[in-house]
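Researcher: Quick test of sequence recovery. Tokens follow.
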């Protein structure tokens, strides 16, 4: 009995010694235990909503588009303008477009690019715009289809014109420029086409049915171009950004119940994307860094799987 007591005492002393040697403040331990038991915070952490800033200074770039003749539609604002800046920083020779001539002038001046203002949903203009690029620069290496516009409305309430305008602005624009670019790319057996879709293009989106259907079409169109033209050295891919911090979207979300947080809480990264982040994904897909990638839809911070329980 005596032996047993002294062994117990010894064990107790040893535990006490170890506890002090490995002393961890109790609040830290309880926080760790809580994080283990419930790794997803019930309430969004406000830190998570700080937009990520991207350093797009020339020094940071690796020149993955050096010397490539790159065409961008709708480059006057938002993601298109951010992509023009990124492409320029990566060494691309830019041929730009926007419906708004003033916005086009501004981004041309900023990036040293050239191009024409006009409506990409006009088949004749889109073809002329691409042919001019090839005429001026001798070739078309990259086409980035960026134009897109969303209109809100339940499916049962969309007019014929609402529906057609969504298909025209989001899908026809991509088809017209892609068809024109393929002609020049096939001649050189080389080219990369990137088209922007949207999280709405996968799984639909409440009150954005016309937009969602057109954006699903963009994914399918790029997959088909990839299968038809891959053997001729041409790659085609799409990407689906989630809500991205452009001025019009920020204004819209501020006026909605719950604001930005309500619309980002169940995205994979639980925050808005920055335009520079989307531009970085486009630049990679456009470049030879992705030379073995064709027919994919790159999902960028959308909601995968079902909604999280609240
Ligand atoms: N902002 C987002 O949250 C988000 C998310 C997913 C996908 N997208 C897609 O990204 C693309 C760019 O979106 P954004 O938010 O940067 O838009 P934006 O409205 O900020 O910029 C679009 C630009 O395209 C131009 N444009 C519009 N119609 C045109 C036409 N017919 N011909 C030529 N130019 C035209 C506009 O003048 C504008 O400069 C769109 O295709 C959009 O559907 C945006």
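Model:
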């Amino acid at each position: 009995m005596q032996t047993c007591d002294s062994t117990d005492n010894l064990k107790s002393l040893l535990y006490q010694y170890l506890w002090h040697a490995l002393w961890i403040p109790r609040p830290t331990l309880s926080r760790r235990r809580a994080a283990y038991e419930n790794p997803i915070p019930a309430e969004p952490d406000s830190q998570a909503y700080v937009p990520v800033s991207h350093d797009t200074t020339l020094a940071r770039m690796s020149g993955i588009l050096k010397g490539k003749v790159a065409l961008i539609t709708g480059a006057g604002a938002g993601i298109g303008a951010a992509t023009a800046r990124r492409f320029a920083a990566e060494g691309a020779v830019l041929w730009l477009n926007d419906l708004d001539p003033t916005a086009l002038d501004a981004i041309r001046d900023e990036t040293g690019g050239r191009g024409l203002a006009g409506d990409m949903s006009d088949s004749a203009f889109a073809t002329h715009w691409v042919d001019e690029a090839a005429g001026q620069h001798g070739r078309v290496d990259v086409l980035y289809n960026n134009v897109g516009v969303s209109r809100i409305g339940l499916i049962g309430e969309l007019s014929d014109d609402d529906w057609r305008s969504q298909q025209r602005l989001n899908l026809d624009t991509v088809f017209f420029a892609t068809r024109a670019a393929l002609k020049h790319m096939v001649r050189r057996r080389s080219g990369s086409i990137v088209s922007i879709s949207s999280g709405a293009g996968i799984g639909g989106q409440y009150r954005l049915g016309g937009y969602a259907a057109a954006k699903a079409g963009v994914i399918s169109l790029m997959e088909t171009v990839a299968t038809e033209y891959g053997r001729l050295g041409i790659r085609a891919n799409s990407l689906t950004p989630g809500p991205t911090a452009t001025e019009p979207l920020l204004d819209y979300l501020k006026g909605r119940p719950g604001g930005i947080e309500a619309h980002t809480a169940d995205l994979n990264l639980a925050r808005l994307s920055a335009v520079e982040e989307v531009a970085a994904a486009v630049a990679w897909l456009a470049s030879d860094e992705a030379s073995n990638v064709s027919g994919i839809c790159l999902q960028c911070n959308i909601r995968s799987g079902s909604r999280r329980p609240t």
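DSSP finds ten helices and seven strands in the chain.
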